[in-house]
Specification:
By secondary structure, the chain is an alpha+beta fold. The protein is built from 13 helices and 31 strands. It has three domains: 274 residues, Bira Bifunctional Protein, Domain 2 (BirA Bifunctional Protein, domain 2); 130 residues, YbaK/aminoacyl-tRNA synthetase-associated domain (YbaK protein, Alpha-Beta Complex), CATH 3.90.960.10; 99 residues, Rossmann fold (3-Layer(aba) Sandwich), CATH 3.40.50.800. The strands form eight sheets. Strands 3, 7, 8, 9, 10, 11, 12, 21 and 24 form a nine-stranded mixed sheet that branches.
Length: 570
Amino acid sequence: MRQSQLFMPTLREVPSDADVKSHQLLLRAGFIRQNAAGIYSFLPLGKKVLHKIENIVREEMNRAGSQEMMMPALQLAELWQESGRWYSYGPELMRLKDRHERDFALGATHEEVITSIVRDEVKSYKKLPLNLYQIQTKFRDEKRPRFGLLRGREFIMKDAYSFHDKQESLDDTYEAMKDAYSAIFSRCGLNFRAVLADSGAIGGKDNHEFMVLSEIGEDLIAYSTDSDFAANIEMAPVVLSEDRSSEALMELEKVETKHAKSIEEVSEFLQVAPSKVIKSLLYIADEQPVLVLVRGDHEVNEIKLKNVLSAKEVELATAEETKKWLDAEHGSLGPIQVSKEVKVIADQAVPYMVNAVCGANETGYHYTNVNHNRDFEVDETADLRFVVEGDLSPDGKGTIVFAKGIEVGHVFKLGKVYSEPMKASYLDENGKNQIMSMGCYGIGVSRTLAAVAEENNDDKGLIWPLSLTPFDVHLIAVNSKNAEQAALSDEIYTQIKNDGFDCLYDDRPERAGVKFTDSDLIGLPIRVMVGKRASDGIVEVKIRKSGESFEVPVSELSSFIKNEWDKLKN
């Protein structure tokens, strides 16, 4: 395409509200424009990249046996009421009424719609398994949209849903989707990891997030130094590596700690390490009080706690609730002589603590020389804390380190979370009515574009991987007013297109500096410059990623570009 005809409004200055590289560069290079907070238009260059991501997604989804369809963005409230999410999803769900005062939602996700379709159309086990997907705009009223395309209120998503009559079938499809996702993100040139994750508002249990490692990521990933183990920090299991101390048990003693409440204050006041203090926190889990114990240098992982208790809601007790159940204030709580109405659950490291410190359930007092079994009992022990760097990897290979990540994909085993309340059933081989099991598989398509831009840039602009570049070759007539340069550029433009490359031809009557700056900014892989040596049949070829430049005879240009393209592919 001739650049004089391309709608590509570039910016010289960094927009003041763009905080991250991908947002800045996609705006400056004319790939996107903001219409409102968290809402963007994709300009021609951005749409070309988006289209390439979508094609990669389609190819891998089709290869994995999924079928493409399209569902409405406008969804009936009745469907969300059937599943129960109309009341529980929260303010992120955009709700509206039509002229007849009937409630609708703009699709944040499509579990309800697809379940209703399959429920109405599939009646026999002979039609299962079934795997369906779409690529469509989604809407979520984010409280704080930011980072450009990485957290928007309107975005493009690939969502797939599978339906099964057997658990083995769901397991097989789940693994096939994981493999398809790995292929998709590899083809997009991303440095990613599949990590164990929490299902959040979607529901279900077994699930993995696909995370692109990035310093601007909003999620913290725990991964092994020596293996491919990776998990969201909320879900990373802790391997118990405690050895019980051989020190002699000392006599329990109650001491006044005055105004010391936090672990740091109590540790300093009593001159003990935080690891010798039992942190005691009262939670209300589905309206029941639960006292949670962890070592003072550890933090309670509320996701793990919620899963261990199989609770729908888990919240820290208020001051009033704490006073009611333990007759003390926050900062003085402990497990000794706790009412039987309060469940006591301890992290797996707590029983290994010897001569520890804990609150006395009396404001301003603590016990010292506290020991499990002798001084207090617990109803249950479990892995309740966040993993920390240096912990053993759960697979026994290496230790845990942290990295930030951008979530670009998520796969779930939903089970019967939606099919049961929505009565999606089928007749099995014995003619008996059964509820379908489901899987759910999402990719943030527009977010993937931003993640690629975030990962592939330098101080001059974007550097697109070959699989996603909006054009393959950038041809520049350095002085388009020079008849010789213009004629040779026209000839080369035809030649490059005939060789099968998508070429952007900068034929604008702009200064050379402007053309080169724009070229670096939009980041096409190979640049061909027709300049002063046009009369000698010599052009300059520059590789965007490495910055290498070569003088190449026009007669050898076709083979040179092909060779360089093959090198970049490898």
